[in-house]
Design a protein that fits this description.
By secondary structure, this protein is an alpha+beta fold. The chain contains seven helices and ten strands. The protein has two domains: about 130 residues, MutM-like, N-terminal (N-terminal domain of MutM-like DNA repair proteins); about 120 residues, Helicase, Ruva Protein, domain 3, CATH 1.10.8.50. The protein has a four-stranded antiparallel sheet with strand order 1-6-7-5. The longest helix has 20 residues.
């Protein structure tokens, strides 16, 4: 599933093509995504000016002058800017046509993505209102994580992946940030001290920024808005490397299951 870096890369790719353009039309070929696509979009969107594209967690927010498109890539979705005459494929479920002869197209083979509409504050939408802190925001830091974890019995990896605590950090980047910080993923969150949380906060930010700079990770069907794959997987320290030598100490990377997700770590470097 695309995580924060992949969604942010998509946002950056789409923004210059969408901002300042007017919606010329909407085509919904299959409304049966994770949640049904609202039938009123075809009537409500044309003529609206796109003011910008922002991100909250793993959601993209398209400001359509008095309303918001809330987009989610799901497990396998991608958003592309294409010429308006581009023929749709089998899994191309939604088009937003623009006044310059281009369109924004959602391709989603598994149909776990979302195209939602709200005319109220997008950040108050039920899917977004309960999201936690943005890990790239100035407010995110060691002191903040320390305060949030004093009463938590869950492991630190599970806390990092809890979107109600930290928005957008999924399995890959939780693994990599914990490796970078030298913290074992299974460690109960409340047992980690303030100083180590400062190291972890820096590791989370650095991991996400490096991933964004590398174009994200190529995860099954994910590509950026320009169709290009990401290359951060070439920098993985532990994720997907079970049994291979640790890049720091050479000891084999271990793998366990946490919350039905794969956790990879170095038994020597992470304590």
């Amino acid at each position: 599933m695309p995580e924060l870096p992949e969604v942010e890369i998509t946002r950056r790719g789409l923004e210059p093509h969408l901002t300042g353009r007017r919606v010329a039309g909407v085509t919904v070929r299959n409304p049966n995504l994770r949640w049904p696509v609202a039938p009123e979009l075809s009537a409500r969107l044309p003529g609206r000016l796109v003011r910008g594209v922002s991100r909250r967690g793993k959601y993209l927010l398209v400001d359509c002058s008095g309303g918001w498109l809330i987009l989610h890539l799901g497990m396998s979705g991608s958003l592309r800017i294409l010429p308006a005459a581009s023929p749709p494929g089998k899994h191309d479920h939604f088009d937003l046509a623009l006044d310059d002869g281009t369109l924004l197209r959602l391709r989603d083979p598994r149909r776990f993505g979302a195209v939602l509409w709200t005319e109220t504050d997008a950040l108050r939408h039920p899917l977004l209102a309960g999201l936690g802190i943005e890990p790239l925001s100035p407010e995110f830091g060691g002191d903040w994580i320390y305060r949030q974890t004093r009463a938590r019995t869950a492991s630190i990896k599970q806390v990092l992946m809890d979107g109600r605590v930290v928005a957008g950090v999924g399995n890959i980047y939780a693994n990599e940030a914990l490796f970078r910080a030298g913290i074992r993923p299974q460690t109960p969150a409340r047992r980690i001290g303030r100083k180590r949380y400062g190291i972890l906060a820096d590791a989370v930010r650095e991991t996400l920024r490096l991933a964004i700079a590398a174009g994200g990770s190529t995860l099954r069907d994910f590509v950026g808005s320009d169709g290009a794959p990401g290359y951060f997987q070439q920098q993985y320290g532990v994720y997907g490397r079970a049994g291979l030598p640790c890049p720091h100490c050479g000891r084999p990377i271990a793998e366990v299951r946490q919350g039905q997700r794969s956790t990879c770590y170095c038994p020597r470097c992470q304590t």
